[in-house]
């Protein structure tokens, strides 16, 4: 689970303007953080298949959001990918 402080930091780092709180970039960044936490969880709990199903759902949601951003503005997409370290 992401702490409130972590979530606030992620939102501030990815805001397009000072009142932005739910843009696709912020949503992707928050999903990426949750995905990273779940991946670490699976290092210790290899047989946690219920959480693995949730992970797959999060990955699919992030993929759809990234496709939306790419379709609307390729430069925003490329900036976000570099910033989050995705698609190596």
Overview of this protein structure:
The protein has a single domain, classed as Orthogonal Bundle (Helix Hairpins), CATH 1.10.287. The longest helix is centred in the C-terminal third of the chain and has 24 residues, at 49-72. It has helices at 4-14, 24-44, 49-72, 74-84. The chain is mainly alpha-helical and 88 residues long.
Number of extended strands: 0
Count of the domains: 1
What is the fourth-level CATH superfamily? S15/NS1, RNA-binding
User: Average pLDDT value?
Assistant: 95
Range of strand content: under 5%
CATH architecture identity: Orthogonal Bundle
Oligomer: single chain
Shape type: globular
End-to-end Cα distance, whole Å, is 26 Å
Which structural class do the helices and strands define?
mainly alpha
What pattern of helices and strands is seen along the backbone?
Answer: HHHH
CATH topology: Helix Hairpins
Low-confidence stretches: none
The helix fraction, in percent, is: over 70%
CATH secondary-structure class: Mainly Alpha
């Amino acid at each position: 689970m992401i702490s409130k402080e972590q979530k606030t930091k992620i939102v501030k780092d990815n805001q397009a303007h000072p009142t932005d709180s739910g843009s696709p970039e912020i949503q992707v960044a928050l999903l990426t953080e949750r995905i990273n936490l779940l991946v670490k969880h699976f290092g210790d709990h290899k047989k946690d298949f219920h959480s693995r199903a949730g992970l797959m759902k999060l990955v699919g949601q992030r993929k759809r959001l990234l496709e939306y951003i790419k379709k609307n503005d390729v430069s925003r997409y490329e900036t976000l990918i570099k910033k989050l370290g995705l698609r190596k």
